[in-house]
Write a structure and sequence with these properties.
The chain is α+β, with helices and mostly antiparallel strands and 122 residues long. The protein contains 3 helices and 3 strands, in the order βαααββ. The protein has one domain (17-102). The longest helix is centred in the middle third of the chain and has 21 residues, at 60-80.
Length: 122
């Protein structure tokens, strides 16, 4: 996979967006990079789940479905992609941004690995 971090960060989305916009921004990023076979399959399963829930629309059940999908399937996938010395999450300096940020305890050494909290389902 080619490097996607430029200028020491990779902004994915603003946090003040609707959950659907956050999902779209994350999926857009995933489609823009060269993913391995298993991650491409998981991204397709996520996309399929979104199509299957279309009948829920903008109801509370639809929002709950999307929030759960984002939290349990998209965020773990995004975390797995974090390069050494970076993490996926909320910007520590601006709580309104979601992306890849340098680990605060890393001072120029990119040899540290990032623990993966969870792997995508599959």
């Amino acid at each position: 996979m080619r490097k996607f971090i430029t200028n020491r960060v990779k902004l994915i989305s603003r946090m003040d967006r609707d959950i659907g916009v956050l999902i779209d921004n994350c999926l857009g990023f995933l489609y823009s990079i060269d993913l391995g076979h298993e991650m491409r399959k998981e991204t397709a399963r996520i996309e399929s789940a979104l199509y299957d829930m279309v009948y829920l629309g903008r109801t509370p059940a639809g929002c709950e479905f999307k929030e759960n999908l984002f939290r349990t399937r998209i965020v773990p996938l995004m975390k797995v992609l974090a390069p050494s010395g970076y993490y996926f999450g909320i910007d520590p300096d601006n709580n309104g941004l979601l992306g890849y940020w340098r680990q605060p305890d890393v001072d120029g050494d990119d040899s540290q690995s990032i623990p993966v909290e969870s792997r995508p389902s599959g």
